[in-house]
Amino acid sequence: MQPRNNVPLAPLTTIGIGGTARWFAEADSEDSIIQALRFAHDRQLPLFVLGGGSNVLISDDGFPGLVLHMTLQGITQQDDLFQVAAGDIWDNFVSFAVERGFAGIECLAGIPGTVGGTPIQNVGAYGQEVSETIAAVRVLDLTTAAFIDLPASACSFSYRRSIFNSTESGRYIVTRVDYRLRPGGAPTLSYADLKNRFEKHPGQPSLAEVSAAVREIRRAKGMLIVPGEPDSHSVGSFFRNPVITENHYARLAAQFPIPVPRYPAGPGKVKLPAAWLVEHAGFSKGYVLGKAGISSRHTLALINRGGATAREIIVLRDRIASAVEHQYGIRLVPEPVWIY
Q: According to the CATH classification, is domain 230-339 in 3.10.20.740?
């Protein structure tokens, strides 16, 4: 572990924005993580753990402490249990599992970032969430400096939420995630886009066909990282789909002539599509604000149109959130982590 100083962070993010790290180190082993913590502690530096850079917006001023870039690699398989290092590319692991006929994450193909980020946000898409397959999460507990394995039941998973980004935010560093997948299992086809794609398919589609279809759908929406595509310079969906009560929804339905789409979200609750709220608050695909903007293919993707600053993205974020709150009384919650 050899820290470097004044390392540019923008190239390590999918949105291509951010200043420099005062100190920067690679974590390719659990021992190197401990060394980095000692380095930061001895110099009283704040610490930030960076994975694939796909769900983060870094300040134009950079980060004043130590950025620890998670690069641990390796997949170990024991029957239906896959132990995957936090620095492995998530989509590579999806392909690894699908090629071996294991179901459970095929609909999560094409999601950028590393494995270590998946339990933090409880990553989900197209009818699946990682919490459905996570057996345990190996972490470094910063309060005790000990590595422990947390069972899924201890992670309090819910929609885009876990202890890692809520009640215990900042306490743990994820070093490995264990997934229990279904050998020979059928693909999940609960999402409308996928149902329509395979409506006339002869027989049940394979896991490979479903994961390929998901990547195609994501690319059509500008949600697949493709070099050279302007809409790829984003952090993915910038806002979470809000979950509100049935009573709140009833008030909205009575107030607006255009029905607001809704999806079940548990007893007494409904989930609303943030993209629909953004569009009906006046922000359409292709909206431009300086060098920032909205993807031409997906309303929830705020993009760097070339040379945008974090400040420009924040201004656009706040304009959208304020407009939605003013019109619908709903405060949108941003997805990406804000680092400053």
A: no
Helix and strand counts by DSSP (H, E) for the chain: 8, 21
CA-wise closest residue to 213 among 188, 194, 199, 236: 194
Q: 75-220 — its CATH code? A: 3.30.465.10
Q: What is the pLDDT of residues 188-229, one digit of tens each?
A: 999 888 999 998 899 899 999 999 999 999 999 889 988 888
Q: Look up the CATH number of domain 4-70.
A: 3.30.43.10
pTM: 0.92
pLDDT digits (tens, 9 = 90+) for 253-274: 998 888 899 999 989 999 999 9
160 is catalytic: yes
SS3 content of the chain, % helix, strand, coil (to 5): 30, 30, 40
Burial of 232 (0-12, 13-18, 19+ CB in 10 A): buried
Among this protein's residues, is 211 annotated catalytic? Answer: no
Closest CA relative to residue 113, chosen from 234, 208, 291: 234
Among the listed residues 22, 138, 160, 317, the single catalytic one is: 160
Sign of the Cα torsion 22, 23, 26, 29 reads negative
The verdict on whether 251 is a catalytic residue reads no
User: What are the two backbone dihedrals, phi and then psi, of residue 188, each rounded to the nearest 5 degrees?
Assistant: -85, 125
Q: Rounded distance, CA 56 to CA 215, Å?
A: 22
Residue ranges per domain, the chain? 4-70, 75-220, 230-339
